[in-house]
Design a protein that fits this description.
mainly alpha
């Protein structure tokens, strides 16, 4: 994943140097800091993609001033929502292409598109993950719970096993959904998750081999018969 930092000092001053880019024109951005240059390139590239996806984009950005102001607002929205990687923006653009709309969405809608569903990442659906977490969080499952993915275990730990056990269904799933969304964002950002505990080894039950038992029984019989002979 190509990480794009959005917390650099003076970032906005650099992003504001972005030009209004007509179709086919190249960008003329030369900020001093390499990091700011890369970030400005990503934002300008994003807006160029949005213009190609939404034919009525001029309704939202009728002139250069509005266009540049929108870049600032969108970047600020990304900062606040934790959108910090080009991979997340790719998800957003993928959703935008599937939206079948002519008009550019607001930044809040696009931010929602930037967060893929759990299924898109190969994770269990929310309802299935919640059922698994509640089942495995029960005290009776201690030491024998089976988890399908680190993400489900991590989310359950963030919720707290006790909460999953005592909260009502509505409150439990709301809590789990919130933390599951955060878990998905951690995965997208390449951050580590809490690892599932190793399964406990199956309890082995020692069984006496038949020959051992037979020998012990024979010895007992010999002792009894010997004692009877001396009586």
């Amino acid at each position: 994943m190509n990480q794009v930092s959005v917390i650099a000092t003076g970032l906005w001053a650099k992003v504001q140097t972005g030009q209004f880019i007509a179709a086919g024109e190249s960008e003329n951005i030369q900020p001093a800091a390499e990091l700011s240059q890369a970030t400005a390139k990503v934002i300008n590239g994003l807006f160029r993609e949005l213009r190609s996806i939404f034919p009525a984009w001029k309704q939202a950005w009728p002139d250069m001033a509005t266009y540049k102001a929108a870049k600032q607002q969108w970047m600020r929205g990304f900062l606040e929502a934790g959108i910090c990687s080009t991979e997340q923006l790719r998800f957003g653009l993928m959703q935008a292409r599937q939206a079948a709309k002519d008009f550019v969405p607001n930044v809040g809608v696009f931010i929602g598109w930037c967060t893929p569903t759990a299924e898109m990442l190969g994770l269990p659906r929310l309802a299935a993950a919640h059922r698994e977490a509640c089942r495995n969080a029960h005290p009776s499952m201690a030491g024998q719970a089976k988890w399908t993915h680190d993400a489900v275990w991590h989310t359950a730990k963030e919720c707290g096993f006790e909460n999953l056990n005592r909260l009502s269904q509505d409150l439990s799933i709301k809590l789990f959904e919130r933390n599951y969304t955060i878990t998905v964002r951690r995965i997208l950002a390449g951050l580590p998750l809490q690892k599932m505990p190793l399964a406990l080894p199956s309890r082995t039950i020692e069984r006496s081999a038949p020959e051992v038992g037979n020998k012990a029984l024979a010895a007992l019989r010999a002792m009894r018969s010997g004692g009877a002979a001396h009586a």
